[in-house]
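=== Structure Prediction Worksheet ===
Name of assembly: unnamed complex
Input type: mixed (protein and possibly other molecules)
Chain count: three
Listed entries:
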Amino acid sequence: MMLGRRAAGTGILPNRLSELGETVNLAQSHIATDHTASHPALQHHFENLEQQREAGALGMWVFLATEIMFFGGMFLAYTLYRTQYPLEFASASNHLSLPLGAVNTAVLIFSSFTMALAVYSAQTGKRRAQIVYLGLTILLGLTFLGIKAIEYYDKYKDQLIPGRLIPSRPFDPHGVHLLPGANPRHVEMFYWIYFAMTGMHAIHMIIGVVVLSVIMFFAARGRYGPEYHNPVGISGLYWHFVDIIWIFLFPLLYLLGRHLEHGG
Amino acid sequence: MKAFETFETPTAARVNYINAEYGLKSWLLTKDHKRIALLYLGSISAFFFIGGLYAMFIRLELLTPQGDLLSSATYNKVFTQHGIIMIFFFLIPSIPATLGNFLVPMMIGAKDLAFPRINLLSWYIYLLGGIITIWALLAGGIDTGWTFYVPYSSTFSNSYVVATGLGVFISGFSSILTGLNFIVTIHTMRAPGMTWFRLPLFIWAHYATSLIMILGTPVIAITILLMAFERLAHVGIFDPATGGDPVLFQHLFWFYSHPAVYIMVLPGMGVVSELIANFSRKNIFGYKFVAFSSLAIAVFGFLVWGHHLFVASQSVYAGMIFSFLSFAVAIPSAIKVFNWTATLYKASISYDTPMLYALGFIGLFTIGGMTGLFLAALAVDVHLSDTYFVVAHFHYIMVGGTLLAYLGGLHYWWPKITGRMYPEGWGRFSALVVFVGFNLTFLPQFIAGYLGMPRRYHAYPPEFQVFNVLSTAGASILGVGLVIPFIYLLWSMRYGKRAEPNPWHLPGLEWRTASPPPTENFLATPVVTWEAYEFAPPEELEVIGKFREEIEQA
Amino acid sequence: MQTSWIPFVPESASTVSGKVDALYFYLSGVTAFFTLLISGVLIFFVIKYRRRMPNEIPRPVAGSHKLETIWSVIPFMIAMSMFAWGAQIYFQNSRPPKNANEIYVVGKQWMWKIQHSTGQREINELHVPVGRKIKLIMTSEDTIHDFFIPAFRIKADVLPGRYTTQWFEATKPGSYHLFCAEYCGMNHSGMIGSVIVMQPTDFDNWLSGNASQQSPAVAGQQLFQSLGCVSCHGANGEGGRGPALAGLFGQKVFLTNNQTVTADEAYIRESIENPQAKIVSGFNPIMPTFQGQVTPEQLIQIISFIKSLQISNPQSATAPAVPAPKAAPSTPANTTSAPNQQ
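=== Predicted Assembly ===
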């Protein structure tokens, strides 16, 4: 199908396509590719910054795809068990602190905003703005984690940590008000899923905070500007992704039974 | 420029990636994809040896119907560990992490993979996972079967489940990072002129494999984690006590583990495409069909996991859908087999060792694939599930397929990787021994399976003994056939004949640079103007390559 | 195990084994055909087109869409024939016939406990008569096991906390292997036994010779008393504070959440272990849970007893599926006879 129709021409040529078709014996000479104005951040195996940027961005998107699959397993378990035990899930959901969850949601959404501003500052080379917005994003992330820690501590106090993970405080749902028809045995299932999903999410938040701290360190040294700001952008991608996961988790975990709370 | 000539005149002493830098640190902290490939080659070979030792114990025990060599607790650990080591630490990384890492940048004309440091990190992660697993094995082992089914693994087993699970979990990230690296590299770093349809089929195969790696592996990661927490907390989401469902574990587990078998076989198919084309000096018949069938296998492979659950209380209707899809996924593989065979028509075939392995692959993969159809057929699978038929089926694909392709590829690219040739006579001899030994090992197992011998049995009714004896005899022959290459390949690294840059006289981009290559692969960025497997344009009738009738007339 | 006259095939002793074998032979034939075809063509090409001169290059051959289509479509059609045949046998066999004899199987590490509905118990052995449809109702006490009878070509996983079923009709007297076919720990390969198929008269003799034990239904009745079920459901399942159980098995039940379910083994088991999950319409959620107080075997016995409860009053033989709520309220507040909707 494609053989024999191409003209002869196997050649090694400098990186200029206009010379395609000319055969030049360059076996012995070393012709560097054109990066005469080589940016200090350009890595040696890339031809130019554009290729490096493209590769970095695609890499982050591929990585986010893997994260979706990672959380996907837990979303599947959630879907399955919530369908099977709706009343138990609603009862346990009502026991979660709606104010804390809502505040956390607002905190994260706002942090995505500050992150976007940080990316913009990097693109426009405003060093001070980068530091401020990255710092704000980190602070908001830490706030989220702090509130999460408070929630987890409450669960610990109420003996709602599943199974015998804390041997001295085995799971005991006595404090959870059960909607009529709910079986206390299945309430534990909700908490399993709650801890698995929010725990995984929190781990990803911690990683995000660390990553942003590193980025902020380099931003403070003026590394990012209009020619080179990719790391800020792809860190932003990661941060937004972690935020989106929470935006799914919040209603699925916190808002299951609020309408039943008041006999609705 | 003429066909088959390299871009450099071969010289005796030359700076290449092996001698560019000396010292342990230069290897352990390298960013060069070729050195990382060699790091993987060493560690993968070590794990293969360990997995092979376990196999030897299995076959020795099964010589007699009674469980007389090992206690049943030990035997259960032996077959579990054979599976875990071979699958997670040998088969899944084998071709992608050694041959893929080495060749993907070279075949597309790049200097390295997109993320060299992540490449090195993936090797360290693999090693960490492997070390943790080995520690768990030495500390006492694991006996759940490589499939880790709950509730046995989470509640009843008294072995090192969490530690082994952790080792496997960690090594999964190595897989994910490798896949990520390949995808980004193939998309963004192809040399000028290297369009998608000029890519070697090895690249297409690794691209499809990488898709599976990145989308499938995270699922088993979370599954193992959930199982481990269930074990630690003494109750969990798969436990009927909380209203959980042990079959959910099976769904989550097989959602990855079925595509995983395509991770194991697709790179092998990529190697076979290269071997068939290059050792018959002909373009692969139906190149686009072979390329797209790799993608089709990757996609369809995600839709068939339920065929592992036909007798596991899965619904009848789900069973029918999965059965239908399992038959459908066989078709792209069949297309490849037919295209490879058609490539040989009116070709110019040489009998070098790599070609022998490739031919063996085609025959054995055909048997392995078609016996998969037995298992896709619902009523027959009810009888065959969890018998030795299944064991024989997957060994035909994994050993008769992947391992043979791996060996063939290793031999083929050995001069490129090491700059030395392996001894051809020994190569052909061991290929033959492997082929004979392999068939004798696994063919009787099909029969034992249909007769009803269950798998994972430490002791069995005496009427199955004859098949087990044949199988063990075959395994000894197979073992010998696998040890011989190990010896002569190592020997050749020091004493083998030095290879010219393009010892097989082939047009692939990797052959157009020195053997071994310089660290940056090519002295200048190649510009590609030729098709994949274009052996010579018809106008060019140089001495080095002529159509047969022209030589005959001359 | 006796091999039949066909080599490499186990004894064929059930109504379905012949059908499975036929499909197996078809699959084997197609496999052999394609294996020989591909290997033959490969060997032929490899010899005929071997390299004769070191410098030769073969003429490139263009691909062929026609060939690609042929060798995609034909294998696909063959694959579909295999699918359809396998699915047909499987589907036919998936529903146990209504008039089958029921036998209960409990798997545990590392033995099979079997109980006939007439009371005989067996360990690792299953006696069945030729020519009768037998339905196995199975559960596990611990891990997942699998009840595998190669001569019948059947197997099914056995799960904790659930019932799975499979059925067969044996066609030839003899003793056949019984294997556990889902890895379950240390003595997995020891969890084996025999299925002994007998002529109907021999089987009846065997039954009477072993009738010293209670039938599960009788044992179940004793449990029904000792656990206090009679206080709400009545000594003969006539109902009271709790729904009537006589004639219940197999009927549709209308629940307080407006769902309708069928009263099968799983429903009864769930009602005993987790009564709050499904409340029958018109009744209060006051049944206590018996989770942890009854073993899987005892559950089977109670279920057996409930299955045996007939409606004694011929007038109520046409009774509606849901027993009418009793006028006697459980609490004084419930003086109206309006059903207590949730």
